[in-house]
Write a structure and sequence with these properties.
Cobalt-precorrin-4 Transmethylase, domain 1; about 20% strand; alpha/beta; globular; 2 domains; 5-stranded mixed β-sheet; Methyltransferase, Cobalt-precorrin-4 Transmethylase, Domain 2
Length: about 250
């Protein structure tokens, strides 16, 4: 463990803040927030979580959303290093899980290159929690044995690209609202998805203002103007299970 400029052993914790509902925060994440000397947090982090921080904790917002970057990734990396040199316990608080499309790997590698000790604390991703809360199981033995989680916002610098010709089955797409029209066009034209394939768009998954839209790929243009970010997108036959589960639930509670 490397010492900072104050000769204090320092650790940066890459912490998953969960999907939005503050009660879905892990116990370990809660403890680290309470003990943190500094917290660097993202746009999708529920700010209620910061209420658990101590009075002396420094909280720094570095939110990024499609087209609106308060801080660039390079600036965030620099800030991580600065705080690691100044504070003993630094929490890098990220929405969902830090290692699932959360740039956690990039920041971990940056810290490694600068010999800064770090610990990854997993969180519940909206890719899992969003569909579950909306009544859409991601797997069902009668329907599917696998599910693909993908980003709708590929990096320009990535050497790994989506192979649309081999894409099939049930999909969960994160960060895909602004490119949803082109994504669906690819699924229909290249991947061979039927126009009748159901799609669910879950806005603000697990939050009090969560909203779910269900339609088919062919109906996208009717819904596109009202769809907003951040949303989790689910495509495939598993979406049909939502209606079945809701019908049973309503019958049991009526």
């Amino acid at each position: 463990m490397k010492q900072n400029r104050h000769n204090i052993e320092t650790t940066v914790y890459l912490v998953g803040a969960g999907p939005g509902d503050p009660e879905l925060l892990t116990l370990k994440a809660l403890r680290l927030i309470q003990e943190a000397d500094a917290i660097i947090y993202d746009d999708l982090v529920n700010v209620q979580l910061l209420d658990h921080a101590s009075e002396n904790c420094v909280c720094h917002y570095v939110g990024k959303r499609c087209g609106r970057h308060y801080k660039s990734q390079d600036e965030i990396n620099t800030l991580l290093l600065e705080y690691a040199q100044k504070y003993r316990r630094v929490v890098r608080l990220k929405g969902g899980d830090p290692m699932l499309f959360g740039r956690g790997a990039e920041e971990a590698l940056f810290l490694c290159r600068h010999e800064v000790d770090f610990v990854v604390v997993p969180g519940i991703s909206s890719a899992l929690a969003g569909p579950a809360i909306a009544g859409i199981p991601l797997t069902s033995r009668e329907i599917n044995a696998s599910v693909t989680i993908m980003t709708g916002h590929e990096s320009k610098h990535s050497t790994s690209k989506i192979n649309w010709e081999k894409l099939s089955g049930n999909l969960v797409i994160l960060m895909g609202i602004y490119r949803l029209r082109s994504l669906v066009d690819q699924l229909l034209a290249v991947s061979g998805y039927a126009e009748t394939t159901p799609i669910a768009v879950i806005y603000r998954a697990t939050c009090e203002n969560q909203h779910v839209d269900i339609f088919t790929l062919s109906e996208l243009d009717n819904y596109l103007p009202q769809l907003k970010s951040p949303s989790v997108i689910v495509i495939g036959d598993i979406v049909y299970l939502r209606e079945q589960l809701l019908m049973v639930k309503q019958r049991l509670t009526s």
